Amino acid sequence: MFLVLSSTTSAYPTPTLSLPCAAVAYPGATVSVRSKSRVSAVSLHLDEQPFVPEVEKAVDSLYSEFRAVDNLVARNSARVLKAFQNARVGSHHFSGSTGYGHEEPGGREALDQAFAEIFGAESAIVRAQFFSGTHAITCALFAFLRPGDELLAVAGAPYDTLEELAEDGGLDWDALRVALKPQTKCALIQRSCGYSWRRSLSVDEIGRAIKIIKLQNPNCLVMVDNCYGEFTERIEPPMVGADLIAGSFIKNPGGTIAPCGGYVAGSKNWVAAAAARLSAPGLGVDCGSTPGDIMRIFFQGLFLAPQMVGEAIKGSLLIAEVMAGRGYKVQPGCRVPRHDVVQAVQLGSRERLLAFCEAVQRSSPVSSFTKPIAGATPGYASEVIFADGTFIDGSTSELSCDGPLREPFAVYCQPLDSMGTSSRRGLNSCRQCLWKLSVDIEKLTMVKNLAENRHGNIASPD
Ligand SMILES: Cc1ncc(COP(=O)(O)O)c(C=O)c1O
């Protein structure tokens, strides 16, 4: 028997599929059966067509950029595979442990070893006990710093949640050449833009900054906040001289499936010092249990991470293309090589920022029925709005966006499909979301234009 599926939507070409299977194979589909026909013909009614020509056009025009991302994914995946093989990762490493974790069957060591090799570091510690990127970064910084020590924030103010830890600085090459003092103990380089309207740093630029720093003060230790940067390039900061890097497993390296955790990697002694901050002096890296299935998910997430990051980069290229086409300022710019997975769009008003986040939330698979509300969040100075209809609470490796409610009302998108399992699905979800966003922003602009016209003003997108 043949099943004929056809879309009832007329705006776009309707695919007609002939499948050699029975209707019962699709119990959820809305079907109409032409019973008089000798061969049962069933049509599937799609409620809505997610693509619009504007987005389709953008996807087609990005072909060569997407190919370049595929090449990046292939290279990074090969590095990860090699590291897994060298660490002799086996299924016995996936079982959980309890209590002190003394009976842990070697998974911790294998994961640390593989992670260190992937990132070009001497040593690494990947643990569920790091409860966020901020926590891992703080442990790394406290490995270097004691009260009263001087820290130089090379790329400007660090991410909002780290503001209380550090004073301001600035990535200005001339200024950096004279910025180091003999007493500067540590330089913090934030790879990704955070909530600032700046370009994220390439690993080459980070290497150049490290050389300038060490030339002035060879004792100054360099710590890189690697959040959102992992796997966006072929190299990582330890390969260009960073003493330590730190980040979160619910971002890039967790491959969208790690439920918690973070990492610190770099020189052996400093990783041990960071581990002592995480646990307690003397306990180091050899204890701490990881119950349930988490070890397996860490290994599997890390293995998938290059591919998931590739999807996110494609999503960010697509968002930039479409939103810039609508007249919004985007950072990074269209078709510019990526150094992180974050795509910022300047929306120019509080209402547009709220509408954008609401549209992302509505397009999400989890809690699509809720409305994100801006509010005070621990660690953040300004009011912030988060749209994260994600499987992992707060995961910005899935399709999410957020932004502080302050000028220039920029939204920071991490544009990966929430299911995150295949290239095709990633793009579809992103396209669907973009379509909805375009509609929402358009409606909002019209409402705003009407309101402002009444007062003799014409509003423009930026
Ligand atoms: C560049 C950067 N560093 C650090 C953090 C803090 O990470 P977490 O939210 O996991 O604490 C963020 C959060 O978005 C970030 O963008």
From TrEMBL:
It comes from the Eukaryota. It holds the Pfam family Met_gamma_lyase. Gene3D superfamilies: Methioning gamme-lyase, C-terminal domain, Type I PLP-dependent aspartate aminotransferase-like (Major domain). It comes from Rehmannia glutinosa. SUPFAM superfamilies: PLP-dependent transferases. This is Aluminum resistance protein. InterPro entries: Met_g_lyase_put, PyrdxlP-dep_Trfase, PyrdxlP-dep_Trfase_major. Transmembrane segments: none annotated. PANTHER family: CYS OR MET METABOLISM PYRIDOXAL-PHOSPHATE-DEPENDENT ENZYME.
